[in-house]
Amino acid sequence: MVNINQIEVIFFDIGGVLLTIHPDVMITKISNLTNIPFKILKDSFPEDQHDLYEKGEITDLEWFQAYKKSLPNVNSLTEHEFWIAWSMLIGKETEVLDILIRLKKNYKVWLLSNTNSYHIMNEVENNFAFPNLVDGKIYSFEVRSRKPEKKIYEVACEKANVEPCRSIFIDDLELNIVGANKIGMNGIHYINTNQLNNKLETYGLNYE
Prior knowledge:
CATH superfamily of the largest domain: HAD superfamily/HAD-like
Radius of gyration: 18 Å
Largest sheet: 5 strands, parallel
Number of domains: 2
Structural class: alpha/beta
Helix content: 40-55%
Number of strands: 7
CATH class of the largest domain: Alpha Beta
């Protein structure tokens, strides 16, 4: 266990931690628009192109085109309709926001998220409190790397000016925690707020 007096920075994931996300709501919307069954849409999601999109390697337009092309049927899905559905993936802020606010009194807090330009610029930055509360932000599409790739964690620590061992990373996907651990970051696999508080207490953090 790291010396509790050494923690300087806490990194937070966004989707599944600070925000609820609803991919099924998005898929249902597109299903209603195209008359393509939900399961077919879910199974045909273009994961490889989505990864490229989250790494900033394809544009918003190219992402829409890749998604439309992945659909198994000839369809009338328009770009406007797609972005309406894509926005519906984002839900509400969670109770973790309160934990972030309390931690901010004694530690630097940063965002570290696999995300895309459309959600950040059109949804997250404009509609939620937490982007204005943090000391810095590491977005995958800006640094051209996604968790659990080594590069994104290294960039995060460099930009936050912190040694990995002096940081904690909170994410809802265990694979991403494993990636952080590989460069020496301390990780918490987020499940719920009670569990998160218990984990933070094991580090002896001061955030009452």
